[in-house]
TrEMBL record:
A GO BP entry: cytoplasmic translation
Family, per entry: Belongs to the eukaryotic ribosomal protein eL31 family.
Organism for this UniProt entry: Hydatigena taeniaeformis
Keyword field contains ATP-binding: no
Highest taxon of source: Eukaryota
Entry keyword Ribosomal protein: yes
InterPro entries assigned to the protein according to its UniProt record, in alphabetical order: Ribosomal_eL31, Ribosomal_eL31_dom_sf
Molecular functions per Gene Ontology: structural constituent of ribosome
The protein's name: Large ribosomal subunit protein eL31
UniProt keyword annotations, A-Z: Ribonucleoprotein, Ribosomal protein
Pfam families from the UniProt entry: Ribosomal_L31e
Gene Ontology CC annotation, any one: cytosolic large ribosomal subunit
Amino acid sequence: MARGQAVKRSVRKDAVTREYTINLHKRIHGVGFKKRAPRALKEIRKFARKMMGTDDVRVNVRLNEVRVKLARKRNEDEDSPHKFYTLVSYVPCSDFKGKQNINVEPEK
């Protein structure tokens, strides 16, 4: 591969759910007080876009912590140009030590 070319990731063909711990400190370090929450949401969306390979990212309105579950789901809107979207939701967690990224069985 030539120097300076980015690796293009393909969108996976299956729906999947994964849990991640996102370190928000390093993503909003140096950001002003009033802009920290909007920047944190932008960084969560950016992280979800990178990890799941979907441009359409929807954040659950109750999300206010750093342990999140990313679920890639099929888009039921036929008019949408994207086949999948990623839903970001909160996972309750009392301690973050030793947490690993895990695949979660899909809810039915």
